[in-house]
Prior knowledge:
Largest sheet: 6 strands, mixed
Strand order of the largest sheet: 4-3-2-5-6-7
Mean pLDDT: 90
CATH architecture: 3-Layer(aba) Sandwich
CATH class: Alpha Beta
Number of helices: 3
Amino acid sequence: MTDTPPPVLLSETEVIARVDALARQMAPHLDDNTTAVCLLTGGLWFCADLTRALSRLGRDVGFDALWLASYGDARASMGRCEVRADLQRPLAGRTALVVDDVFDTGLSLSEAARLVKDAGAARVLTCVFARKPWPTERALTPDFVAWEAPARFLVGYGMDASGAFRGLPYIGALD
């Protein structure tokens, strides 16, 4: 891997604008009984920005996290989802907003939605920053999407290549 930053597909300014627009779209669908469930590790950047944007709109959602792994350090899904850390707070009777960075195969988001439903969430909503096109039908369609991304290997804003480039404030591609 090179240390050269990847070319910009979506600038930092565009990322911020999309998060703010998505928060405005989502706010009417959320209430004070909503918990954002961040999918670690990649979803952390987006979830932090999204929950702050929602707060500015008067929607102070709770926070929890699930650490799921379906990629490891590979550029393709392993085809299964490993739970590395489970929820820390009860979701019984609450709305769960599952937040992830990128919707690729749909495996992680589908597994997370199942886990929060099994934890007793009364309603499960899903949200991703980037949705990539996929050649076959996926098990789940996200309720909220900030950006329809190209079919490229994305990095930045939480997305990585073997741990590198997550902290970029923009989204780039390595292909």
